[in-house]
Amino acid sequence: MTYVGRFAPSPTGALHLGSLVAGLASYLDARAANGRWLLRIEDLDPPREQPGAGDLILATLEAFGFEWDADAVWQHTRLEAYAQALDLLQEGQHVYPCVCARKSFSGAYPGRCRSRNFAKTKEPYAIRMRVPEGTVTFSDRLIGPVTFDWSAIGDFIVRRKDTFFAYQLAVVVDDIASQVSHVIRGNDLLNSTPRQLTLYTALEATQPTFGHCATVVHDEGGKLSKQTGAKAVDPNNPGPTLLAALSCLGQDTAGINPAAPVAEIMGASISRWDPTRAGFAQTVNASGKAVV
């Protein structure tokens, strides 16, 4: 099987260290396996997006030495594919309309609308995916076996009440279309994996291998993100930041000169890539130190 990896940032702002770490893990894993690496811009939530952020992310990745093997895919061009997948899910009775407000329940969705009929639901509704009973276990490439209880996950939204397609559906449809074989990403998305696995099953598609690397946190312990004011990485001085990202992934950086050309840094990093050191179950700070 040909290895096909991908990185799929959202254009909600400039690329920061947390996103770079996730992208780097995906890139190194693909290149170390002599695989292909694809890029997708997940621009399905206009209210959260910043104008020009997608192009800025592409330019920043290029400055940091990333090379993708096909034109970047923009999700706003894929709406018809998501609609077709949703039709298939509806035909298979895997989904149902839900009129519940999020504030009307806590924790996992309790399934109040499971018996609702699309034809008889006249008020605005989201569309939820039915999940099975019991547990789901998968083998994570970076952290080993992982088990989730479906009751703790609950039926999840695949199309929002405002008619925007949800992340869970779009990412699976796009990964199927791109024949992605390996999804390497931050462990903040670990609980998305069982949701996506059940979508692969319902769409009768081959499931990829998933792997989850460390999530980078800020000084107060929260996830480093655009929403928490994460600083943009500097495309004019990529070397030191690349080494910091490698440290966050537990990789060996001894002897790598941060002033070297990015192609040289990337080449050394690919040859040294050790996925067993990248699969932290915990989080790390920006210096690569584990946060308990």
Notes on the protein architecture:
The protein is α/β, with parallel strands linked by helices and 292 residues long. It has two domains: 4-78 and 178-291, HUPs (Rossmann fold); 79-159, Glutamyl-tRNA Synthetase, Domain 3 (Glutamyl-tRNA Synthetase, domain 3, Alpha-Beta Complex). The chain is 31% helix and 18% strand. It contains nine helices and 13 strands. The protein has helices at residues 17-32, 53-63, 79-91, 150-153, 167-177, 193-202, 238-248, 262-272, 275-278, and strands at 4-7, 36-41, 73-74, 95-98, 126-129, 135-140, 144-149, 156-159, 182-186, 209-213, 215-217, 283-285, 290-291. Strands 1-2-3 form a three-stranded parallel sheet, covered by helices on one side. Helix 1 (17-32) packs across helix 8 and helix 3 (79-91) crosses helix 5 (167-177). The protein is globular, with a radius of gyration of 20 Å. 40% of the residues are buried. The model has no long low-confidence stretch (mean pLDDT 92).
Q: What value does the Rg take, in angstroms?
A: 20 Å
Write down the domain tally: 2
Find the CATH superfamily of the largest domain: HUPs
What structural class should be given to the helix and strand makeup?
alpha/beta
Order of helices and strands: EHEHEHEEEEHEHEHEEHHHEE
CATH class category name of the largest domain: Alpha Beta
CATH topology of the largest domain: Rossmann fold
- General form: globular
Number of helices: 9
Helix content: 25-40%
Biggest pleated-sheet summary? 3 strands, parallel
Question: Which CATH-level-2 architecture of the largest domain?
Answer: 3-Layer(aba) Sandwich
Low-confidence stretches: none
Percent of residues in β-strands = 15-25%
> pLDDT average, as an integer?
92
Strands ordered across the widest β-sheet: 1-2-3
